[in-house]
From TrEMBL:
Pfam families: HATPase_c, HisKA, Hpt, PAS, PAS_3, PAS_4, PAS_9, Response_reg. This is histidine kinase. The modification Phosphohistidine is found at H1382. SUPFAM superfamilies: ATPase domain of HSP90 chaperone/DNA topoisomerase II/histidine kinase, CheY-like, GAF domain-like, Histidine-containing phosphotransfer domain, HPT domain, Homodimeric domain of signal transducing histidine kinase, PYP-like sensor domain (PAS domain). Residues 344-398, 474-525, 615-667 form the PAC domain. Its EC number is 2.7.13.3. Keywords: ATP-binding, Cell membrane, Coiled coil, Membrane, Nucleotide-binding, Phosphoprotein, Transmembrane, Transmembrane helix, Two-component regulatory system. Residues 152-222, 274-344, 526-579 form the PAS domain. Residues 1048-1168, 1190-1308 form the Response regulatory domain. It comes from Algoriphagus halophytocola. It is a multi-pass membrane protein.
Amino acid sequence: MSPHNFNKLDADKDVSLYRICELTAQIAQVPKVALLYRDGSQVCYTADFGFKDECHEVLSILISNSVYSKDTFHCNSLMDFELDQSQVDFLKKHEVDSFSFYPLVNKSGDFLGHLVLLSSKQIFYSDSQERGIALLRAEATVVLQERLLISEYAQIERLFNLSNDLICIASVDGFFKKVNPSFTKQLGWDEPTLLTHSFFEMIHPDDLEKSKKEIEKLGRGESSIEFSHRFVCKDGEYVDLEWVATPESKSGDIFAIARNTTESKAREHRLEQSENRLRVFFESSQGLMCTHDLSGVFLSVNEAGSSRLGYQVNQVVGRSLYDIVPVHRHEFIDQYLSDIKKNGKASGQMVTRHRDGSYLIWMYNNVLERDPTGEVDYVIGNAIDITQRISLENELTQARKLLEETGKIAKVGGWSLNVKANELTWSPMTKTIHEVPENFVPDVSTGIDFYKEGESRSKISKAVERAMNFGEPWDLELQLVTFKGNDLWVRAIGQAEFKDGECVRVFGTFQDIDESKKAEIELEHTRKVLDNVINASSEVCVISTDVEGVITVFNVGAEKMLGYTSDEVVGKRKPDFLHKPSEVLAHVKELEQEFGREIQQHEIFTIRADINGFDQKNWTFLTKGGQEKSVSLVVSTMRDLSNEIIGYLGIAIDVTEKVKFEMDLINEKSRLSAFVQHAPAAVAMLDHDLKYINASNQWKKEYSMQQLDIIGKSHYDFFPELTEAAIARHQRVLKGAIERKEEDVVKLPGETSKRYVSWEMRPWYLFDGEIGGIMISTQNVTGFVKQREELERAKELAEEASSAKSEFLANMSHEIRTPLNGVIGFTDLVLKTRLNETQNQYLTIVNQSANALLSIINDILDFSKIEAGKLELDVEKCDLYEISSQATDIITYQIQQKGLEMLLNVAPELPRFIYADSVRLKQVLVNLLGNASKFTQKGEIELKIENLETYENKNKIRFSVRDTGIGIKPEKQSKIFEAFSQEDSSTTKKYGGTGLGLAISNSLLKMMGSQLNLTSEVDKGSTFYFDIVLDTEEGEKLEWFDVSKIKKVLIVDDNDNNRLIVRQMLLLQNIQSLEAANGLEALQKLAAGERYDVVLMDYHMPFMDGLETIQKIRETIQPDPEELPIMLLHSSSDDQKIIPACREYSVMHRLIKPLKIQEFYTALSHIHSSGFKYEGTEQLEDKGAFRAFTVLVAEDNIVNMLLAKTIVAKIAPNATFVEAANGKEALNYCQYNMPDIILMDVQMPEMNGYEATGKIRALDYHTHVPIIAFTAGNVKGEREKCIAAGMDDFLVKPVVEENINMIFKKWLELEPEIPVSTNPSEIDDSNILHYNSSKLLNYIDHDMEMFQNILLVVKEELEKSLSNISNLVEAKELKPLKEAGHKLYGTAASGGMKALSELAFQLEHLKVFDDADVLELFEKIQVEVELVKLLIDRDLV
């Protein structure tokens, strides 16, 4: 029996098999039928009828009990059949008590399976039923054979398409009818070309006749032929092909297989003789032909058959089948002889044994030939050796299984694309690789999209496109992203199948190579790193060799050291050519002596490395240029994983310089010894035991050792009186310390005077880093010490003189300022009384002269301090906008009195705060503005501040003052920066001044890291500027209410620069502006119907001034100020002229030049406020309503006392004035009656102001009385000294009314006196000391909308401050607590909360953190905050 491959038989899809089962059941009148088939050694069922789920179990029981054979088998009762009782019960349970097995046998006699009929009762078949069953058996056999043929055809088709051999079908005329893809792969010809050209056209001319003759054999009846020839490729080259061809008897077509043997031609010569014998044997073989008798004895045999069995013909004849068939198969011979006797014929397979013992399998078809004479019958045997075929079938089966398993292990899947149907099919492994679900249906786009976007997707898209268009196959390694999002490396192989020139199918394989690819990438990376390391070692020579000694690696360091290139030596030379021959010979002798045998050439450099793993030795290398290089060479073995030596690695370091260095070291040692001895300094070198190694001649001279032999003797022998401290110092130095002393007293034996020396002791080190001893050097500094003592005495005298000078300057400052204070103060007061024109003129001159004298004194004092180096900068955080405003305010009146335009141009992008000495910076600016005013008669003066560069928290800022004055000649420009110098003497006479201003300013700027620069043109003006780098801070962004309502502004000003500045200011809030250069142009723009939210009008303009223009606007264009608000820009000197007109024409706001951004936006924010009042609606104050307060003035100068008394009486008529002639009198008064404020002079007899302030502060009072310093000195540190003494503020004489008024407003509450209550239940509107809303309203011009917003902010800020202070009290952190007190003081003072501001002041000025005091103060603050919040709530709408 032969096995059949029904592996792919799918009964579920083959309805015909089920129908056969059903028809059989109908014909035989049985309930159950099954169809069994044999697949190899297994028996399987493929279709059934009448069963539920028990079919497999039922048939398994019957098959396992030997009913499965080629014969028909009937069983009418299970009792007749040997079964276990459990099996019988199971069969009966499923209504099986009888059954029949009908074999299925094809025409060739091959057994295929059984048709099984089963019933619960006995089975009896009629003839017609038997006939019907026979027909159905035949039909089942046909169906099974058809399925087998279909399966085999599919395998053949697959083999045809995938085989690397050339398989074709050709007609007898030499034209191909069909070719497989290998023709295109191996020959380059496409299928259409091959099908339209004769086979003979492509054979090499020399082989043509031979090929034709071979093919003609098929026409003469030969069953197959084999031949070879050369066949042309598309590129014109020839390949050797070996053909096996067989004719098809019906069609006459030739089936042929060719193999490309071009590459194997090289091996043909060795195999030629063997192949010739094999070819002759094969071509002459016609199988085994024989005759034998009925007992199996051979009567005759052909030569080919006998030879196949391994015998000569005469050796086979007379032998029996039993002689050539293995003993264990003799029973089959018995059966065979019996069958042929019985049936007269027999066919099947028979196994024989070759003479050499190997087995042969034959397919036989034998017949019994009866002798016509009636004598002995004999058998004619015809057998074909199918041993190889059976072997191939087995191998194919194994290969198929192996392929399936290999596919799983190697992760190889397949795919196929039907181009016409656009259907893509993936094998299960392909789906596994893509990590998609089993039911995933791929298509072309999704298949492409799995490839990683970028290079991989682009490559596969192009490969598919070229395959479908040009038939080009591909084999690519690409990355894809699986369904689960994992990155994966795959190998994609594909090719296209064409039909009639059109691509109909694209198919290929798909392999997961992720692990190997990543390993390959990592290996390549490692190899590259190794190569880079080797090549990067440019100072190290790296040479490796194979086991034969041939160089395999010659790195960059080797090229650099030896002059040879890698190409010159790698794979071509051994390293011995690099060595000095004499050294090699000496090394060979050394090795032979060491190992006691002759050393072979290949062992010279590696024998020690072979034994020890490495060898190190110094050699002399010879470079390409003939130079000698001393190297240290280490040779080590390179081994593989099995520890076998695969080569040697040599690493050499150039030690030429080291050898030279060692020689130089010896020479250097000699020179060092000579240097130490002859050094001009006293130097001694001691070893670790403090014994002399060497000493300079100067040392011997200094310490009287010229005649002594000191080398090797102890230092202590020559200095026996050294103290324990000196000996301990030596030990510290021996441990690594370095000791020195700039000045020490030494008294040597025999010397009467002191000797001063400077000395140094330090360790010196051996080559290995160990301390070898001490190096001592000394220098006699006796002369230097004496000179220094003389200089110190001179310095003391100079300091005494300097102190006297400083004291003189301070006294002079006080003495000069004291009378000036009277002159300036009283003239200021008199000028504010009613005077006639002459009196006013004379007193104005007196006042100006006194101020000029004061300015000169200040300049001289500043200059003297700068020259003496006594002036220091006080750097602090200050507001840049405020500094610029104050500087211009100081000089604005003076500038505007001359009819000049004052411009303030501060760049909007500048940070708000800078860290600088604001006083000195302002002094420089005021000086430059004053000079500009002095030397400018017409035009304008501009103070411009701009940002040049920005760093992290620093800015480079340029300050410049530009004027349109007389200018300075180029040759005079450098002179003006010199002290006491001006451009020329006529300038001094005409304009006045000391010539110190610019010198002082430049000196101050140098202290700030800057200097003054100048650009000037005669009669056109000058620009003084300086650049300074300052620490900066943005600060909180300024916010203005209601500015968003202003969208468009008309700027009316004849000064181009001023219009530009205003325009830039407006752009900060993205406010659009239009400009008019005069009043007439403004009227034209307004008359044109343009609508503006605000008109900003300058007062001083030619032809038609600002007020005249406003008058025209109100009379002819827009009388309603609500519809067209107007703001007026003017000079402070114009107040008396313009105030009445502003009232008359409803000017909303007056702004004094120069325009400052804060004032400008504050005014803009009030334009649309509900509480805004027009110019002239100010409420008059009732001075008589001010509460009474007491002011104590401590002043020893009668004039200054009178001046203070007069000013106070004018400012506060209800104030009580108390006089104290010195600090002692002031203290005595305060011991009994504490005033509301104290004005304290600092220089007074008996007790000065500092001492008096300290004692007053020591008095136990619950309230803090402001003490204001009066001083005539304006020197650096004066303010700090006053504050440190306990004073609160600082006034510099001369004192005028404005200064006193400012101090009172700052430190006193000049409101009506109201009783104070701390009980919230007793709060009424009279509690102004706790919360004075009028003060806040005055700040914001009674804008009620803004007032409500501010109250909310103030209330929120108070709550935050109270919470913060509570946390800081609990944490006991004094510094942050004081900062919180300062912040609370600012909020309270600005919001009219006097009681809270006083408590906050106490908190800010705490000296120490006393738990009880702090807690008590916090409780007071807490009560006061709650009280203020209740009062604020009453004002909130």
